[in-house]
Amino acid sequence: MKPIAPIALALGLAAALPIFTAFAQDDALPAGFETAPVLKTNVTRDGDAIAWPDGTPEIVSVIGTIEPGGRTPLHQHPVPVYVYVLEGEVELRTEGGDPHTYGTGEAYVEALNRDHQLFNVTDSEAKVLVVFAAAQDQPTTVASE
Fold this sequence. Notes:
This protein has one helix at 5-24, and strands at 2-3, 51-52, 57-66, 75-76, 81-87, 89-94, 100-103, 107-109, 116-119, 126-135, 142-143. The protein is mostly beta strands. It has one domain (38-143): Jelly Rolls, CATH 2.60.120.10. The radius of gyration is 17 Å and the shape is globular.
């Protein structure tokens, strides 16, 4: 895997072009549009460096629903994974780490190549947006034994 910095820089510059154009105008953002930071990091939740997989970049996103008392299977990811809690509360349990609870509106980047599970330990349904920074024709998730 290679560091994400060169790719992130290129994507950031491409994404920033409309913003640079907006700064040339009187108002950077149009009326009625606001932004609020959610997450900015170069490490996973466990402090590991984020690394981009080799290959042709591909973004994959899913919305996962975890019923009360439910969980994901034990698994790991060979690619960076961004998770945003849309509804409810979830508990992330990562091999070698302490459990951590995330609620609606919170986000994190999952550990790379380390077993983990996401649990719903509440009485209400939980929904998460999961975004994989993947490579074409390569797995985003690997089941653990």
